[in-house]
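User: quick one
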Amino acid sequence: MNTILVVDDDPHIVRALAITLKGQGYTVVTATDGQSALHAAAQQPIAVMILDLGLPDMDGTAVISALREWSSLPILVLSARHGSSDKVEALDAGADDYITKPFGLDELLARLRALLRRSIEPSEEVTTVETSSFTVDLNKRQITKSGLDVRMTPTEWNILDILLRNPDKLITQQQLLTEVWGPAYAKEANYLRVYMAQLRRKLENEPGNPRHLITEPGMGYRFVP
Amino acid sequence: MNTILVVDDDPHIVRALAITLKGQGYTVVTATDGQSALHAAAQQPIAVMILDLGLPDMDGTAVISALREWSSLPILVLSARHGSSDKVEALDAGADDYITKPFGLDELLARLRALLRRSIEPSEEVTTVETSSFTVDLNKRQITKSGLDVRMTPTEWNILDILLRNPDKLITQQQLLTEVWGPAYAKEANYLRVYMAQLRRKLENEPGNPRHLITEPGMGYRFVP
DNA sequence: AGATTTCTTGACGAATCCTTAACGCCATGA
DNA sequence: TCATGGCGTTAAGGATTCGTCAAGAAATCT
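Assistant: Done. Structure below.
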């Protein structure tokens, strides 16, 4: 189910929110400062982030800006500050909604639903990709090659997923690195070389002479069906 | 530019909002009741709808539900009612945001920007350039010439990208050199000669007699579709 | 806690790309 | 006619990037 990331420095609020959200059927992940919030967002796919602006280690808008460097997940801001300049600042930094404390739980949940409703749309449709040497079901995360199932590690999946959802499109090394490892790793092209080799060994008929996972020297990689 | 549809039964508010929004560079369309609002939304592409809940002819949530039957455009609700049940109702009917009157104009504008930011994404620009001898998809970075894919090196692509995004426009050698190699190389016209020759060999039917990648002696180069 | 899988890191030859220089062509003007 | 300057073409070296392998660290599972 959808995973919500709750970020607040007050453990009471975090626990109360977590209980409420779990009661609604969401999966909940928590953080109590900006650094761990960013880390948590990079670890797993998050559907919506609920962010308190008053964090101990860094400014709330700084968290938003840092996240927006590499992610477009919806952000719902909680804040005790009613000043309109705070709202404008947070929204323009990249937040999607802003509620002031104290707030009604039912309103929070309704706004959450509104954000989730939008973020569901784009996926679907392209669920299964077929080539001459392998078949991938992107939703079930299942790969078949000549009748046999192929297992992928999490990192391998992330890379493959990006490439397969953009057939024929050149994906920059930077894009791949920031999407999979985060913006701090944008120059570690080693990783890509290692993982592309593994993907080819698992998927291509002739790993040394790939026909679907193509290298564009100096630029990036491309999936050709 | 983006078109905003303002719906409110109070003409004063409509006019005030319209003036403010136009001042921000938006195009504004107005309506004072639910029926004409739905009609206006059907007439033209609307980027965001700002909707007052207290309309004379029909309930505000009814307008939202009716609109959501066929459109997914972002809706920002204005309302004098502070009750959380009103908010939940409107948001669950399909609204994307909810502000209670009285509201700060700068907050309204910030929330508007947040909604617009999200709705821009899906319109992936179809940047594909076609000529009599080759086809280029600038988004995918893919080039086709008589059915076959053509590969480009990073430098070749940088030059081609600049020329193709400015059809019929003369690009000086300085511009190309500074964009691709940096300002320190602004006088190394050798590079351009070498790379233009390679581009022509890969793209033109008669590389010695180019029809699309034209030299303007003493000045620069020009792409002619 | 131990075992297994996964991730990170470094090094090397091979492949690719960039730079540079040399030469021929053509138009212009002395 | 010849000299000059800008442009096109080609080829070779040196620099960069890529594929591959292996081994230790970290994370995950049992």
